[in-house]
UniProtKB/TrEMBL annotation:
Name this protein carries in UniProt: Amidohydrolase family protein
Residues forming coiled coils: none
Sorted UniProt keywords: Hydrolase, Lyase
Domain Amidohydrolase-related: 144-343
Keyword Magnesium tagged: no
GO molecular function: carboxy-lyase activity; hydrolase activity
Pfam families attached to this UniProt entry: Amidohydro_2
Length: 344
């Protein structure tokens, strides 16, 4: 059984802080915008005041150290005993998701955020609210950016089935939102993508780039799952959203969140097809980031971490190793591309 200390010894750009959390190990100067972050009050659960003190973040999304493999996207070892069959596994999967959201809601405080920004040399977080049909978290996100304009930039999020979506998006733009974020599945949309396309068109009209959670997990095989579980795992696959792009203007600014996790090669294909699209790198590995740079160049790649679901350091350390011989690519991926895209 390997310890966390032994694990980071083998990782050039990672070390542990006093609490045993992963932080970057890098001495030079860096300028960084983290394009994919959340906070304690922007998720579709009961909100926690971000000013709360003493809340401990556990990073429940990270695999156990014995199951961690940073050379693959999502950093989880592929094991043949990873079977997810039967209804129980679906329930377990949903409850794991809930546990992760709970941890993010508890730990996504200013105190934890500023500590992480400092330890990882991060100048600014883009805050992505996740709204559901029931809860619109955009105003919470805007409040954070208003409280600390030097540290945060806000996106907004409105469910595509919200009857007031247009009025809301226009309003959020005047309040300072810089883009639109959504986490949605084909199951939730019941395979009717018209409302989503309409939402994208409104964003295009008012000049919002759109970031969606995209991608499927790769460490689970189809043969090891039930039909329902597989549907669930495939419900945010890259193809669903990539295919919608041909219904939108060529200069529609779409960002593939997580670079499609295990489906980053398909993301590269869409980036070639749609020159105004971008890809955000949270959960990717050194190799997959290098692959994306080779295939589409570095000017449409955006560093993101998915904090507080994941430590800011891990994807950051992957970007640093993927750009060891390319200082310019590093600067663009870590900050310049984001500045240009959001005009900040
Ligand atoms: Zn996220």
């Amino acid at each position: 059984m390997i310890t966390k200390q032994e694990f980071v010894k083998k990782e050039k750009y990672l070390k542990l802080n006093k609490l045993g959390d992963f932080i970057i190990d890098y001495d030079g100067d860096l300028n960084i915008i983290d394009f994919h972050t959340h906070m304690s009050n922007v998720l579709p659960l009961k909100v926690v005041d971000p000013r709360a003190k003493g809340n401990i973040l556990k990073y429940k999304t990270l695999p156990n150290i014995s199951n961690m493999d940073l050379s693959v996207p999502y950093w989880t070892k592929h094991t043949i005993d990873n079977k997810k069959k039967g209804l129980l596994s679906v329930l377990k999967f949903s409850s794991e998701g809930y546990t992760i959201f709970k941890d993010m809601t508890n730990g996504g405080t200013y105190e934890n955020c500023f500590k992480s920004q400092e330890e990882n040399k991060i100048n600014r977080n883009i805050v992505l609210p996740i709204s559901s049909k029931k809860y619109d978290r955009s105003l919470e996100s805007l409040k954070i950016a208003k409280d600390y304009p030097d540290k945060f930039t806000a996106f907004c999020s409105v469910h595509p089935n919200d009857s007031e979506i247009k009025e809301k998006l226009v309003k959020y733009k005047t309040l300072g939102a810089k883009g639109y974020k959504l986490k949605i599945t084909d199951l939730e949309l019941k395979n009717n993508f018209t409302p989503l396309i309409e939402a994208f068109k409104i964003c295009y009209e008012i000049g919002f780039p759109v970031l969606l959670h995209t991608g499927s997990l790769t460490h689970i095989d189809k043969k090891d799952t039930s039909k329902l579980m597989w549907k669930l795992l495939q419900s945010t696959r890259v193809e669903i959203f990539g295919e919608l792009l041909n219904k939108l203007p060529k200069d529609f600014k779409f960002i593939f969140g997580h670079s499609g996790i295990g489906e980053y090669k398909l993301v590269a294909k869409y980036l070639k097809q749609y020159p105004a699209t971008y890809t955000e790198l949270s959960c990717q590995s050194t190799n997959s980031i290098q692959y994306l740079i080779n295939e589409v160049g570095y000017e449409r790649l955006l560093f993101g971490s998915d904090w507080p679901a994941l430590p800011q350091s891990i994807t950051l350390s992957r970007v640093l190793s993927a750009t060891e011989d390319n200082q310019q690519a590093r600067e663009y991926i870590l900050m310049k591309n984001a500045e240009k895209l959001l005009n900040i």
